[in-house]
Amino acid sequence: MAIRNVREIGDDILKKTCKPVKEMNARTQELIEDMFETMYATNGCGLAAPQVGILKRIVVIDVDDGNQYVLINPQILETKDSQSGYEGCLSVPGKRGIVTRPNYVKVKALDENLQEYILEGTELLARAICHECDHLDGKLYVDLVEGELEDVTEDLEAE
After folding, report:
1. How many CB atoms lie within 10 A of CB 62?
2. DSSP 8-state assignment for residue 94
3. Residues of the chain under the 70 pLDDT cut
């Protein structure tokens, strides 16, 4: 496993649409492991493959609910209600902004064994699913921010 470099806003790869994963192989499995390691090393709760320079439809999420989620080729099936709150991104370091997202999300994806499953999430998990799936289509949260981006300070990080 290895910590990979996180691509930052301005890198063209973050604006590209990712390709579906067709098969699981050693390189893809290693990518998933590296994505988790990179996410934890950078204190994130989600990471999408294009953020580490790979144009594959893979997302990893860990929102401290006791689960690690791998979503391969995710498709959002249903959303409802809404929530507004601060959002940040490993690809936009030192910034945050208010974004409105669904408060409930139902997504269909493949797991690391390419077995299809349905994941339902609310609150932070719903926000993370939407945020990371946007990355797969070349979208960044900064395009959805209501108002201005704010600098993240030490005080805010302790919240």
Report:
1. 18
2. E
3. 154-159
- Write the pLDDT tens digit of every residue in 134-149: 999 999 999 999 999 9
Between CA 35 and CA 60 the distance in angstroms is: 7
Say if residues 103 and 123 touch (Cβ distance below 8 Å).
yes
The residues annotated with a catalytic role in the active site are 132
Q: List, edge to edge, every strand of the sheet that includes 83-89.
A: 83-89, 92-101, 146-151
* pLDDT tens track for 36-63: 999 999 999 999 999 999 999 999 999 9
Encode burial over 76-110: b for 16+ CB neighbours within 10 A, e otherwise.
beebeeeeeeebbbbbbeebbbebebbbbbbbebb
